[in-house]
Write a structure and sequence with these properties.
Chain lengths: 656, 323, 209
Amino acid sequence: MLTKLKDFASTFFVTGDPLIYGADVAIVLTTIAIVFVLTYFKKWTWLWKEWLTSVDHKKIGIMYLIASLLMLFRGGVDALLMRTQLALPNIQFLQADHYNEIFTTHGTIMILFMAMPMMFALFNIVVPLQLGARDVAYPFLNALSFWLFFFGAMLFNLSFVIGGSPDAGWLSYPPLSEMSHSPGVGENFYIWGIQISGIGSLATGINFLVTILKMRAPGMKLMNMPLFSWSVLSTSVMIIFAFPILTITLALLFVDRFLGAHFFTMTAGGNPMMYVNLIWMWGHPEVYIVVIPAFGIYSEIVSTFSKKKIFGYKSMVFSMMIISVLSFFTWVHHFFTMGAGADVNTFFAISTMAIGIPTGVKIFNWLFTMFRGRIQLKQPMLWTLAFIPCFVVGGATGVMLAVAPADYQYHNSYFLIAHFHQVLIGGVVFGYLAGIYYWWPKMFGFKLDEKLGKWAFWTWNIGFYVCFMPQYALGFMGMTRRVYTYGWDMGWAPLNLVSSIGAFLMGIGFIFQVWQISYSIKYGERDTTGDPWNARTLEWSIPSPAPMYNFATVPHVSEQDAWWAEKQAREAGKRAAAAPALEPIHMPKNSGIPIIMAAFWFVAGFGFVFSWIWMAVAGLLGVAACLLARSFQYDTDYYIPVDEIKRTEASFGRGI
Amino acid sequence: MNLKPARKFLKAACAAFALCLAVFALSGCSGKFVVLDPQGPVAATQQRLIVLSAVLCAIVIIPVLAILVFIVWRYRDKPGNKAPYTPDWHDSKLLETIWWGIPIIIIGILGTYTARDTFALAKPPVSDTTPITVQVTSLDWKWLFTYPDQHIATVNYVQIPAGVPVRFQLTSDAPMNSFWVPQLGGQEYTMPGMAMQLWLQADKPGVYYGTGANFSGKDFAHMRFDVEAKPQAEFNQWVSSVKQTAPALTKSGYEQLVQPGTSEKTLYSSYPDGLFDDIVNKNGGMYMHHSSAPGEPGESSGTSATGATGTSGMTDMPGMNHH
Amino acid sequence: MAHTAVHQASRGQTAAHAHAAEHHDQEGLKILGFWIFLVTDCLLFGTLFAAYVVLRTHTDGGPNGKELFEVPGFVAETFILLTSSFTSGLAALAMNQGKRNQLLGWLAVTALLGACFVGFEVSEFAKMAGEGATISRSAFLSAFFTLVGTHGLHVSLGLVWMTAIMLQLRRRGITAVTRRKVFVISLYWHFLDAVWIFLFTVVYLMGVM
């Protein structure tokens, strides 16, 4: 009995690596500390009522943001471990298996559990406010999406201390990811972590598409809509078309692993190439899913901080839509070298290059928004200005990669690594950071400190170039991705060392940001006006942070940059701040079902990971029970009375 | 006040650029840019395309960066800036036509060259010598090369005659990998159940770095091999000496070789008949012609001969050559 | 929650009126959302169909569709499911005429037919498995069981859902909310019917031909 238990424990828990033992201790201590603080300050009820059961899009957004920053930390630590291992030839810091796990989790976390939630954080915080809406179309579903993401991410993250991490790369190509070559539970964690959070992402796509189509303030035509909301519309459509493919692809891989089926196996007629096609049919749109909202953010910021209307609004909308359509017709460029045929490769090479056209147009439009403007170099604008050269170079190397015959030389090399980090960091991360700096006062009512922010900005940026420019060169030297070590013979050592130094500089940049946030909580400049940047869109017309009902009275919109126009009119004395009659506001009630249902999904996922059928069934029954409970619930909303609205508005100094 | 960040930005950008240059210069002494050092016609074509695309991209990038710096400098928000300020100017058909037009032209040029070379590289390099064939099988975590004409086999080492086009046939009896010899030409995937084709040629004798490029598990990092090009006569000598001195690769020897693990450079005087075809077929090769062109009677050789492809292409299933 | 009760007590006449209007909007929103969900479900099935078509001939020496599929069985399944789609249409008709009991009756018939369909399918699967044609036998069978099984799972979930809606109809009668729920489930049901027609053609008809 005892030995049996011991055997179980030694496979159930990951053992043997001091790094992991350290992580174990850290996890236990952090959990104890959190539980202690919540209990000591009697905050459990507050946490449950105000946050965990909230269906308020602003609070959900903040929870997404916190989770994504934690994931950025985890993914970043993974990156630094890798760069440590690769700093010099033949280092024994990480063994092959461990290194393979780390690059797999790094990629998966950064795309699916960092970029996606950070994007959803901004969707949630900004879109309803920009549209003049009180919430998203389906607030309950929105909460469910968050909790599905959260528990999916937890399940994935658990793998490095329990059972073992996946180690077949962030897209888990079979047959490597099949039972024949990855018999452990790691791949199951990968499948279920992504699957559970993927359902949430799909629901978010539907939610925001309907929100944007149906919940805009009266008078706001689609072609008057702020560009960030346009970018969300475009991304939501891509999510709706791409994510079902991911769901099925991973489901089929799981059926292979769990029931011994042969979709992608080497034997019995399986076809691994089919997986590669399917996963990239999702995977390529996915990178545009994360970058398009960043384009929306840049558009808002460039216009605000140049104090000028966005240049070529229609082109901006049109180009985003073209990109989202084209993104579904480029997937083969991820495997030109699988030799699909000269005709096929030519088609996909040209469709890929074609994406450079609308993207280039966007760059010019941003430049000419600044032209004859008045450029204020505030933090959001700094990140935007850093984005342009970074993304232009990254985009250019992307066009180079699209040249199919040349791609035979770049593919799987560090040239490719440098390229996609340049567009994903320079495009996506810079964009989201710019957005976070920009909308931070709207979320929390204070600005983030400028001085610490500048330190963070410069360490991040210098670190970025020091880290990734050498990697282009390493690609030309024949260094392939995913090697855990290398020798002295190829002369890769100096550039790798430089690259590692750059990575650590970026890590320091992140530390500055943590410092900046903690410092600003206490000392940051408070925003009492609700419009700290003298901005242009509706979210800045209401107090910071926004009251729970967002708009005391629903705004009427007649043009682009509605809030700017309103301010101009008021300045010219044409219009006083209007004060129409207040009415009770219809709001959705909080609900505990989303978090409970997602927890049951976690239980089911965990059961499937270890093939414990009883646990999987119990989890799925719990999910079903939650769905039924919701179906039978009719009392799901309430009204905020007029006098409470008056009181709230008065507390912001806005008498109505 | 507002000037400072802009100046800082410029300074830092210059510093970063200088650092990059320094690093490149430094590393030039120790490392070798194998991709930019073509030793055969395929790699040379690819290098030309790399340079062409880089130049075309630079034509766009450099003006854009210059315009960016100029605009940020000229229109910065500081008291007394005399530059014009037109807060409502947001539209210019002429300007927008220009920057929809420029990238379209550039992509047009690049696309044309890409299409031309993609089709060209599907064919063997032009040469008056008869090509030789080398079959490549990626295993966990080693490379097996079989020479169907010479009937010898090697592991983690491949010798080819210089100046002769080599038709590499690629497959895998393990998770997919990618066969890459940068100085001779780009890589191509090795996939279970498929026989891909990659034309390469070394113009001069020499030893060229080869590596597995697609992650395939634990010891992927050790999947390196050397490609040695020798004059035809020396190559022939080498073949006959291998035939005389090296041991044979038997069926059970192959079973040993398939087991996960790394391997030293090894030579074999012979290998089981039809080994490569067997490997392809047992991993699903027999289905390939069904899924590529269902319903077309007798398409077995048609699709692949014309569809030869990329630098390469899916060849006939070897088992089907007798159809 | 304490403050909610207060709000509801203080709700006035106008608010109640507005409430009805807003509910109407919300039901419309939910129907739109469901349509979009169906788009995603279409893509989901589309991907499964694609996988099936690719692997259709990959039998690994095992049985193929011609040997496995029994014409009377899948024709009966088709007939049952098509009829259930028709009866769910009759249910919607009854609902529009405000006839609750008739509505419940037709929903019950629909659910019963759905259950028969699932029963047939389960026995078909069991028979195949008994003959050694399991999901792990060949890529073709993996794709077959997954595609057809996913449809069957959709139908089964629809049955549970339909039962829940019938209970709500009994308790609350035909209201704006229950009307929307009936509408949505019948959309779902017709959708599954349409998917089956593709299954019938691509899997069964082309299989036995």
